[in-house]
Fold DNA 3'-5' helicase.
Amino acid sequence: MATEAELVLAGLDPEQRLIAEHLRGPISVLAGAGTGKTRAITHRIAYGVRTGVYAPERVLAVTFTRKAAGELQGRLRALGADGVRAQTFHGAALSQLGHFWPDVIGGSAPQILPGKVAALSQTVEAAGMRLGGEALRDLAAEIEWRKTSMLSIDDYAARIDQRPIPTGLTPQQLIDLHTRYAGLLEERRQIDFEDVLVLLTGMLESEPRVALQVRERYRFFTVDEYQDVSPLQHALLKVWLGDRDDVCVVGDASQTIYSFAGASSSYLLRFGVEHPNARQVRLERNYRSVEPIVRMANRLMRDRPGALTLTAMRATQDPAPEVGAPLTSATPLAKRQARPGAKPPTQTGPAAPTFEWFASEGDEAQAVAGSIAAAIQTGTPASEIAVLYRTNAQSARFEDALRKRGVGVRVHGAQRFFERADVRQAVMLIRGEAKVAHDRPLFQIVSDALRAGGWSTRPPEGAAERDKWEALSSLLSLVDEMPPGAGIREFSEELLARQRTQHEPTVDAVTLSAVHAAKGLEWSLVHVAGLSEGQFPIVHAVDEASIDEERRLAYVAFTRARDMLRLSGVAGGTRANRQPSRFVGESGLI
Ligand SMILES: Nc1ncnc2c1ncn2[C@@H]1O[C@H](COP(=O)(O)OP(=O)(O)OP(=O)(O)O)[C@@H](O)[C@H]1O
């Protein structure tokens, strides 16, 4: 009989298992897209907790976005590793800084500046200069880059000739604005987002007593997306660790997409130099995508530094889903994805990725919306479809074209699910129900509570109403994910836990997202739009390093697709006269 702990290892492939069983000492995992790195690290932590090697409250799992942290926390909870903390670097640093500030510095920690651009606009005005919105944003990005690269203003001034200068500024004015901005923050007793990490790292380096307390609290570290770590985050991790080395880092050099903000994959690739006793494991079996997509992704990254070669694991013809079977590395994807309402996969073999070229942006949006409407008609759930693009400004035309066809849309990066007024009200109503004794089935109690919040069984007309209906319906669908016998109290607790960790339910709508925000996600059908030179790669990517970063971004986009990948681009008429993106050619599609 397998023990409780061993059950956590079931369903891992041999390399994932190696990772999960390596509980002590440094380990780096080079994990290609869709190779189950999140699965490997969550199971590793759960295995550590279940075997008693880790005290859950001493484990810290760090990632980059709140969404990813919420996802990680949710997966850990599902594996029974409840007390483990999954946070962003920023979130973890902010709570530690707030905790120690009164004792070390006195008083409460400074307020966080709500937005850099507004403060910079004042700084620029006070300096008697004028800058447009775009130049202000570039200036903000440059300040962020300097801080995450851990450069003082003097260090920065010494290398100003290698930096991009926002339009309308001389190098000297740029340096002067860095100084004035720092002065403004000091005057207002505010700190910015990057300062949180700068100050905490400084505090831990200079106050051994504080460092000791933090190290006492956290013993076992896991860092996801380590290819995107900045020098500042790396320095913080180092002080968290002190002279200990219980750290697991996971990443994929081919998915480094934040170099512009100071990230560097060299920390991942040189982990063995920093920790000579580290174990290194590669995950190269891709479980996500059908073979033609994997082949194309490999081709795009061929011979690039640090690139892994993925092997497609999905069978050409996945057999029909079988509910309740234990997961193994040989379990075809179709089994794992059996969702209520989803049709079994067709038996015709995987479709090759396609590329279509359009005269205008309007034509492209119409064609993408048409293809999506047809996919929904033939049984692909809307929540299994995404349209990805390079910049947020591209979303509106797809949103419009899809809504006109009556397709529900969710624009990624818009308001967070649990912060929506309608969702907050519904959660409150459900919590109210949890305070009363009931003998009705859970589904009925929740649907009645949602009705009181304006929900009905039939989807309403109108985009905004429909949007609300979809959000509330997704809360109701969470009832199906509860264990048998769960009542309204457990359900209400589950909602609270999800609210705390921003663990969103799946909304039945097509996702529209910029590629950066699609990192770590997957869909059955993915459209990547706007693949034209000047759009993707973006117009200002001119040198080799920034083209490389754009290529990695394209790689992230392409590898989000499980079953179907459709690429498109726009010539843009005589005015733009664009050519198809080089990444389409490099992937072997044209
Ligand atoms: N051993 C396995 N057997 C079967 N399926 C697996 C296995 N490991 C991972 N998968 C599946 O592969 C897909 C990718 O896994 P996961 O989300 O953990 O990937 P990832 O490596 O974090 O991806 P990325 O870096 O591209 O975001 C998921 O659908 C997951 O269920």
